[in-house]
Amino acid sequence: MPDEELLTVPEVMARLRLGRSTVYALIRSRHLPSVTIGRSRRIPASAVREFISRQMAEAA
């Protein structure tokens, strides 16, 4: 999607109310897809929404 919103790690931390190391652990474990642009890590907003949906489904 060309208009996909890309979030920074601090933005994802705020949305999920998680710490920095937890967000990076989710990225490393591929539970939260991300892209690297230069030296910056970005997470698609849709990936965050899908992650939340998966977590809700598993909790149900």
TrEMBL record:
Domain spans labelled Helix-turn-helix: 6-55
GO molecular function: DNA binding
InterPro entries: HTH_17, SinI_DNA-bd
Record protein name field: Excisionase
Annotated TM spans: none
Organism: Streptomyces carminius
Domain of life: Bacteria
Lineage summary: Bacteria, Bacillati, Actinomycetota, Actinomycetes, Kitasatosporales
